[in-house]
Amino acid sequence: MSSPTPHLTRDRTEQYLLGALPPEAEAELEAHTLTCEPCARLLQEEALLEEQLYEVAAATPRDAVVVRPARWHRPAAVAAALVAVAASVFLMLRPGGETASTPVTPVEAPVVAARDVEDAPRDIVVACPDLGTQEHCLKSASARGLLVYHPGGQGEVPRYDASSGLTQVALSSRPAAL
Amino acid sequence: MTTLQSRQDIDSAVRPAAPDEESLSRRALTGERAAWDALIARHQRRVVVSLLAKGLRVDRAQELAQETWARLIQQQQRGLLPELRLPALALAQAAFLASDDARRTRRESVDGTVEELPERHQPVDPAQSAEKRLLSEEQLTRARDALEQVSPGARNVFLLACDGQGLPHAEVASRVGLSVQRVRQILCEVRKKLRTALEEENHV
Ligand SMILES: [Zn+2]
């Protein structure tokens, strides 16, 4: 306990709040705030911002959360899957449907044929990530004229590839037969 | 259910919440200690951070977080917990303890004695103790506008990580197909943007 511990930086505090620091560093940071008033305040302020971010997230419409199907089945498979009860709801844009980047439009991602991942995108699929928001998702979907269907367990994994960014292409789209 | 690529991916895609959160909660409600421990490990940080945000020192925040879990477990043992929605319930309990703490401190400083507060046995209803809003409408609007500006991928990560279910970063990472490190990087970037948006001066 002879050498004084360093003051907190904002970055380090963020790392702490994210749980990204190793335990010793975490303990050191905590201990420091007990003896250093300005750093204690910094930690509290950053924690408050963290809580505010949760509030922002809670106030953000869930249907903006989208996962990208890494792969998708061909129409037959899709149609077959319609009868299945879904755990998550997918919205499919109608052909010619709006794909522009209006703020409310959920993130769109190309759907790729099952056998050929590099295939040109065919459909625009957006997905609600969970059951909790399904109802809201369904409502806003119909409000926007989107087709909704339940892909059930069929599925290639909707996953969002954040690194590839968003392809805002107007895609030829198969309507899901409802 | 043909040509499934990967069981694990399917699970993360199809399951609504964190995969084992639900079963953990169920088991915790039967009093299984290991389930409680897992839930505590998962949500502890959020509870501590929420207490820090109320201006508590880190040591007190940790004490109250411990107390929070102790109370919840006690309520469960008394059959007072019909359901367990985390982290919301723990946050509500912690907020209650924090204001209790503040009241006690005030009283102590006023007359130098600590009056024993009636012990609450009732579980805290998170809906009822509706947390005070931390942000003004303008701030919220600015933050949402700022959120519109970040890449959809980053926004997705942010919303997954902060959706109030306490999804561990590792799980966010596996859902979006990125490394945990990258997820945290993204969260820091989004945080910076939102910080700026929230700190903007109010001008019309
Ligand atoms: Zn310091």
TrEMBL record, chain A:
Pfam families: zf-HC2 (PF13490)
Name of the protein: Zf-HC2 domain-containing protein
Putative zinc-finger domain location: 15-40
